[in-house]
Amino acid sequence: MKHCVRNKKNLTAADLAVNGGPKTRTQPWPERGLLGQEEKSAVVAMFDRAIESGQAFGYNGPEENAFCKAFAKFMGGGYADAVNSGSTAVYVALRALNPEPFTEIIVGCITDPGGIMPIPMLNCLPMIADTAPGSFGPGPKQIEELISPRTSAIVVAHIFGEPLDMKGIMRVARKHKLPVVEDCAQAHGARIDGRLVGSFGDLSAFSLMFGKHICTGGQGGLVYTRNEKLYWACRRASDRGKPFGLPNGSSNCMVSLNFNLNDLAAAIGSAQLKKLTGIVRRRRAIVAELSRTFAKLKIVSLPEQLPGAEPSFWHCRIKFNKSAATCDKATFCKALSAEGLPVYSHYCDPIHHADWYRNRNAFGASGLPWSAPQYKGDPNRSFPCPNAEKALDDHFQLTVWESWGRAEVADIVAAFRKCAAVYESNR
């Protein structure tokens, strides 16, 4: 900014760290401390047993079985299959549904690449749904607009741990007799209407990589379902078509790969799962404190959540109110970052803007599945997503870690107040 905006505290642009002023946060942010003695003890115990017995630990053993049962219990009952990543979890969930090739699967336009790439890998066509207004995820209306006789499934992602309208989405899905996969890679412990996300759809996929709410080490994932038939289909899809749940004498019954987790990672996961409720509770408490501050500012606010939604805040999404600012979002975020805050002005572009999608780069130079003569839809269909474009333009992200205490929250509050004092419009 070339001009100085003064306020009742007499702060000017020259006082901002981005312009050479004193920095709000001068200390390093505390690390998460996600892994502790509990995980170490579980791993050491496994090594001790392996050394004593002379037998290496593997997968589908007691540790993995215990982890899957504990996760299913956490979800309120049902079945869980541990796999090697969240992307794999989405693939296995869809593979268990066994959609016909060259059918269409609806997916939200704001998601991780791993949340959409399993669709063309199954030779199905992704139909890209816009988000609900102000949201990073689709609502029932946006999904129903894409349903056709060619639709075989729906995938919805709870981005940043913000629950979608699952009752409305499930009503649309049941009306059209379509299965739903909930992508909960960022939404461990989030709830809506008192129910955990992941418990609404026919199947749900969770990521357990090191950056998520809980982990199983470097990578990991889980597929969850309340449907026993789908559970056995997941087991077969995640382990080379082995005949899990089939009569004795059956052999490998489908083409797939080995997507298993392993017992060592599962032992870490069991210890981590016990911490999940506390992790989510602390993140919610931090965001609640920020909410009280934002309520007194004009330039930022927390996005409105659906009634009954209880996010688990993988990151904290913050709305930048342009009409109350004398700068743009990038300038404001740059100022916050200079004050020492972990903010990011942009999350991602809509998934169908990526090179792999635009270039149809799935199977060699064939253009499949889009080029398949068996596909009866429009392979060159465009997917305008004005709601998503506006939501991405209007919001930025703040990292929130459960390890932060009063000093960290105080610094976040102080930095926002400082930048708001300079950049808020007096109108």
Q: Based on Cα principal axes, name the global outline.
A: globular
How many β-strand stretches?
14
| H/E series | HHEHEHEHEHEEEEEHHHEEEHEHHEH
Task: Tell me the name of the CATH class of the largest domain.
Answer: Alpha Beta
**Rg, nearest Å:** 23 Å
Q: Determine the structural class based on helices, strands and strand pairing.
A: alpha/beta
Layout of strands and helices, then pairs:
Elements: H1 37-53, H2 62-74, E1 79-83, H3 86-97, E2 104-108, H4 118-121, E3 125-129, H5 140-144, E4 151-157, H6 166-175, E5 180-183, E6 191-192, E7 195-196, E8 203-207, E9 221-225, H7 228-237, H8 263-273, H9 276-294, E10 300-301, E11 309-310, E12 315-320, H10 329-338, E13 343-344, H11 355-358, H12 386-394, E14 395-399, H13 406-423
Parallel strand pairs: 2-3, 2-4, 4-5, 5-8
Antiparallel strand pairs: 1-9, 6-7, 6-11, 8-9, 10-12, 12-14, 13-14
Helix pairs in contact: 1-8, 2-8, 3-7, 9-13
